Every structure is written in C-alpha cells, then in structure tokens.
C-alpha cells in the first residue's frame, strides 16, 4: 500500500478539522489575507500609528515659529478727578493690539529637525509594521507545520488502529499469538498522547496567531495553505535576489541613516545656540476715548537685533551641548557603518542557509522515498507472514519520522527565505515563489 503525497494531502485536510462547531463558522485565511488583517487590527501597531500621527502634528506645528505673536485687549476706566464736570466724562474706553515677531537662523533648523523627527518616526513605524508581518508569516508557516504534524500522527494512529483490528482478527482465528495482540494494542494506545500533544501544539500556535491578528482568544480561525511553496526557494533564487538588491537601501541601514541625519541637524542647531543673532520686530496700537468723546491714538513700532554672548564662554552650557551633539553624530556614523556591515553579513548568511536547507531537503526527500519503499516491502512481507508486527511498526515509524523531517526542513527553508527578504527590504514571498 503506497501512502503517496495525494493521500497525505487528504489526511492533512481532515486533520485541520479540529472542532466541528468552530470550523463551521471559522473564516479560512490565506497568508496575504492574514497579513492585511494584522496590519489593520494589531493593537501594538495601532499604538505605533497613534505615535506617528502625533509626530506628524508636531512637525506641522513647527511652522508656527514663523507666525507673529498677537494679542488684543480692551478696558474701561473711571476717573475720580474733581475737574470732570459730568459723570459720563469720567469713563474712558481703551483698546490695544500688539504684534511681535522674532526671527533667527535657529528657527529654520528647528523646523528641519521636526521634519526629520517625523521622517524617523515614519521609518520606525514602517519597520514595526514589517517586523509584525515577518512574525506573522513565520507564525503562519509554523501553524501549517503543526497542522501537517498533526495529520501525520493522526495517520499513524489510524494505521495502528487498523493493525490492531487485523491482529485481533488473526488472534481470533488462531493465527496470531496473544503477545502480538498485546503489542498491537499497546502501539495503538501509545499513539493517543502523541495526537494530543500535536493537537495542543496547534491550538497554542493558533492562540498566539489570534493575538497578532487582534482577535479574541478562542475565536474561530482556520488557516489555508501548505508548505509546498518552500520547494520553489532555491539557492540560485536567493543569490539573484541578493544581486538585485545591491542598489536598494536596506531597512536596518535606512533607520541608521535617518538617525545620522537627525544627529547632524541637532548638531547644527546646537552650533547656532553658541552664537546666533536674533531679529525682533514688534508693533503696538492703543486707541482710547472718553464716552462720547474723540478717539486718541497711540502706538509704537520697534525693531531690534541681538546677539547673546553667553555661549562664547568655554564652559558655557551651549558649548557643552554642542560637544554632546558632535559626539552623537560620531556615534551615529559609527552605528551606520556597523549596521551596513551587519546587514551585508546577515544577507550572506541567509543565502548560505537557504543553499544548505535546499540540499538538506533534497536529501530528506530521498529518505522519504526510501522509507516509503521499505514500508511497502515490509507490509507485503508481513502479510505473507515473513515479517513480524514489530518489523512493520518499525518501518512505519521510520516513514513517519522521514516525513516529519522533510516537513520541518520545508518550514526551515521558508523561514530562511523570509529572513533574507526582510534583511534586503524585499516584498515577502518573493524569493523563488513569485514571478
């Protein structure tokens, strides 16, 4: 009896039907639909989106530095002088309007610093969204692996059940010993804990996946897909992706580059704090009039230029702030260089890991074919009475183990492909799996 890939696919589909009530109402999600749902509903990403919006408001408010300060006032006063003849003349209405504007080179630097802070926040948000997508896709593949493992242990349990029934029938006909019957019964009962462990692993994985999607614990959820796409991931495709991404800025490097730009902007702002002229312009208009009397106007306009000298002192707070800003620039430059080297090393390591995983998967496929052949031959010999039940169980166990190893290697190959795509800043699912 050959248990081929088509039979295994049918068993895996049946294994995913864990709970009839839940499955009846569960929405079947593919990986792309799950990513879209997580980006929209993940609580952590929602909070990051609020932080980004706050940074955007702060950047927009930076232009308020170019607007003049304005104030408007009004008043009513009463005089107690004996020389005033009527009560009406004792009251005077007054008003005031004042405008003031201060301009300095530091203002433009502050506006640029606010814009850079928003751009850094945007990059940080995109990096967090990308990290969430990476985690979700990895978890999605891990759940597919857990479903496949559950399918295999269910298949093994069904095989043990049928074997026990056959031995029981042979024992009843006097063709099998009581020891064979007990051994078959033991093997069947021993398969139960493995099924429950695999089922528990799958349920725990689904619980963690619900958190990523922003779903309530225990809500209906079914994931559609398999690990077969791993076979399209090759070392050749990984090398091609690495070559194509040479001119593309990598996400980890882009974050360090933006941090360097922000540090340089802070340095320029700190240098202006040491000695920077400031131009101030103010105007004031103060009309007043007694009740029923003529209006008298008074006003003033002033223009001033100032240059603070405190920052010129060697140990002033301004000079210390400038020194600290220069240190921050040096650290940011060093961090950028380190990030570029680390990213290049990680990408190369991921490519080599894909090549090794591809070779390992090819070897494991051969092992599965050999284990299948061994099981088929052992089963035929057992049916002819040439092999014992323990020999058949050993062959079946070897076949299950080979299949589990191949599935685990498929998962490892997909994981390495995701790591490479993440490091290079490529779209997920692109290395070898998308034309």
Could you give a short description of this structure?
The chain has ten helices and seven strands. With 435 residues, it is α+β, with helices and mostly antiparallel strands.
Secondary structure topology:
Elements: H1 5-15, H2 20-25, E1 28-29, H3 31-41, H4 43-61, E2 69-78, E3 91-103, H5 105-172, H6 178-213, E4 222-223, H7 235-244, H8 251-274, E5 278-285, E6 288-290, E7 299-306, H9 317-383, H10 389-424
Parallel strand pairs: 1-4
Antiparallel strand pairs: 2-3, 3-5, 3-6, 5-7
Helix pairs in contact: 1-5, 3-5, 4-5, 5-6, 5-8, 5-10, 7-9, 8-9, 9-10
What does this molecule look like?
By secondary structure, this protein is of the alpha+beta class. The chain has one domain (5-424): Outer membrane efflux proteins (OEP) (Up-down Bundle). It is 66% helix and 11% strand. The chain contains 10 helices and 7 strands. The chain has helices at 5-15, 20-25, 31-41, 43-61, 105-172, 178-213, 235-244, 251-274, 317-383, 389-424, and strands at 28-29, 69-78, 91-103, 222-223, 278-285, 288-290, 299-306. The strands form 2 sheets. Strands 2, 3, 5, 6 and 7 form a 5-stranded antiparallel β-sheet that branches. It has a two-stranded parallel sheet with strand order 1-4. The chain is elongated. The two termini are 38 Å apart.
């Amino acid at each position: 009896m050959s248990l081929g890939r088509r039979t295994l696919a049918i068993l895996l589909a049946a294994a995913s039907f864990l709970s009839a009530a839940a499955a009846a109402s569960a929405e079947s999600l593919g990986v792309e639909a799950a990513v879209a749902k997580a980006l929209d509903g993940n609580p952590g990403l929602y909070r990051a989106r609020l932080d980004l919006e706050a940074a955007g408001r702060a950047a927009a408010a930076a232009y308020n530095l170019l607007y003049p300060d304005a104030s408007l006032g009004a008043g009513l006063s009463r005089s107690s002088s004996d020389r005033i003849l009527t009560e009406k003349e004792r009251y005077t209405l007054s008003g005031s309007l004042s405008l003031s504007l201060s301009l300095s080179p530091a203002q433009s630097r502050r506006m640029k610093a606010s814009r850079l802070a928003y751009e850094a926040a945007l990059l940080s948000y995109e990096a967090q969204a990308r990290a969430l997508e990476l985690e979700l896709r990895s978890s999605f593949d891990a759940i597919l692996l857990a479903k496949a493992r559950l399918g295999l242990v269910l298949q093994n349990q069904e095989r043990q059940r049928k074997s026990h029934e056959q031995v029981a029938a042979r024992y009843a006909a006097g063709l099998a010993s009581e020891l064979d019957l007990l051994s078959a019964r033991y093997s069947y009962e021993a398969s139960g804990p493995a099924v429950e462990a695999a089922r528990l692993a799958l349920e725990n994985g689904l619980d963690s996946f619900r958190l990523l999607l922003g779903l309530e614990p225990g809500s209906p959820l079914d994931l559609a897909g398999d690990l077969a796409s791993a076979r399209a991931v090759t070392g050749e495709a990984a090398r091609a992706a690495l070559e194509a991404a040479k001119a593309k800025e990598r996400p980890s490097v882009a974050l360090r580059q933006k941090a360097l730009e922000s540090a340089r902007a802070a340095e320029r702002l700190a240098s202006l704090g040491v000695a920077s002229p400031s131009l101030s312009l103010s105007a004031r208009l103060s009309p007043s009039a007694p009740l029923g009397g003529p209006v008298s106007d008074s006003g003033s306009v002033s223009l001033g230029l100032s240059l603070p000298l405190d920052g010129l002192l060697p140990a002033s707070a301004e000079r210390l702030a400038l020194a600290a800003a220069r240190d921050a620039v040096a650290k940011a430059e060093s961090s950028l260089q380190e990030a570029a080297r680390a990213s290049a090393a990680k990408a190369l390591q991921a490519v080599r890991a894909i090549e090794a995983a591809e070779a390992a998967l090819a070897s494991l496929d051969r092992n599965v074919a050999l284990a299948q052949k061994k099981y088929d031959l052992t089963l035929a010999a057992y049916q002819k009475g040439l092999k014992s039940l323990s020999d058949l169980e050993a062959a079946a166990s070897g076949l299950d183990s080979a299949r589990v190893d191949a599935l685990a290697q498929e998962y490892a190959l997909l994981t390495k492909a995701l790591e490479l795509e993440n490091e290079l800043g490529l779209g997920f699912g692109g290395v070898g799996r998308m034309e």
